[in-house]
Specification:
By secondary structure, this protein is α/β, with parallel strands linked by helices. The chain has a single domain (about 1-240), classed as Rossmann fold, CATH 3.40.50. It contains 9 helices and 10 strands. The chain has helices at about 45-50, 75-80, 100-110, 115-125, 140-155, 170-185, 195-200, 220-225, 225-230; strands at about 5-15, 20-30, 35-40, 60-65, 70, 80-85, 160-165, 190, 205-210, 215-220. The protein has a 6-stranded mixed sheet with strand order 6-7-8-3-9-10, sandwiched between helices. Strands 2-1-4-5 form a 4-stranded antiparallel sheet, covered by helices on one side.
Length: about 250
């Protein structure tokens, strides 16, 4: 199962204007782990995820997916192993119909037409979106777009799912549906999110990134209970741990 492992060693990246975005990030994620990457806006979460798919090239350091470094030569293999769900579904949905979008990746792998059709059916069934197969993506709700964007990745049969804010801009029902869906996946999952309640629902382990540096790596519950650590990194405790704002029940005493 080595192909499920993600290892990042001393990763650094600078934007074209010279701004340092990542500064010596290192971690190792093993088969089947679900790991949250949290931090304030501009901390470097999305930039980190883009390195895992080879969309960005590091200034220094190394990323390995299984036994292979992420390089220009290994990119085709890396992108079959690592599937990324972007923060904005509209960045992934651009074909005339949902079926066309989900089929796009497998077709570009050169798979036989019958296998592509099978993958499309299975991926849409997994996310509960089979009834949307003939709809144009622009006619979907935000929750439906998110489900279909996940299906486009699942159709590629990745070993590792990388997700950037998977519940952003969703209403509570759609958010809960996505969380319940993600609970069923046995993939290795790496989820960048501002939603710390989602992190508690899905991830036993959490990394905190602040100003391009990794400042914490540990059990999610322990990190979420550390108010000083969260405050230092411009984060707040998950809502479920804050207590009732009206009666004060469950809130920590001063």
């Amino acid at each position: 199962m080595s192909h499920h492992i993600v290892e990042v060693r001393d990763l650094a990246y600078r934007y074209p204007d010279g701004t340092s975005a990542l500064r010596g990030i290192s971690f190792r994620i093993t088969h089947g782990e679900s790991v949250a990457v949290v931090g304030s806006n501009g901390a470097g979460k999305s930039t980190l995820l883009l390195h895992l798919t080879g969309a960005l090239k590091p200034a220094s350091g190394e990323i390995r997916i299984g036994d292979f470094p992420v390089t220009a030569k290994t990119l085709p293999m890396i992108r079959r192993t690592v599937g990324m769900v972007f923060q904005d579904p509209d960045d992934q949905l651009f074909m005339p119909t949902v079926t066309d979008d989900v089929a796009f990746g497998p077709l570009n792998l050169g798979l036989p037409e019958e296998e592509v059709r099978s993958r499309v059916r299975e991926a849409l069934a997994i996310v509960g979106a089979g009834h949307l197969k003939d709809r144009p993506p622009y006619r979907l709700s935000q929750g439906e777009k998110r489900a279909v964007s996940i299906a486009t990745v699942l159709a590629m049969s990745p070993d590792i799912l990388v997700m950037d804010e998977p519940t952003a801009n969703m209403d509570p029902t759609a958010r809960r549906q996505v969380i319940e869906l993600l609970k069923t996946f046995e993939h290795t999952k790496i989820i960048a999110t501002h939603d710390l309640d989602l992190a508690m629902d899905l991830c036993r382990r959490t990394l905190i990134i602040h100003e391009g540096r990794m400042v914490a790596d540990g059990a999610t519950l322990e990190i979420m209970q550390d108010e000083a650590l969260l405050k230092q990194n411009r984060l707040e405790k998950p809502l479920r741990m804050q207590g009732c704002p009206v009666c004060g029940f469950g809130r920590p005493k001063n």
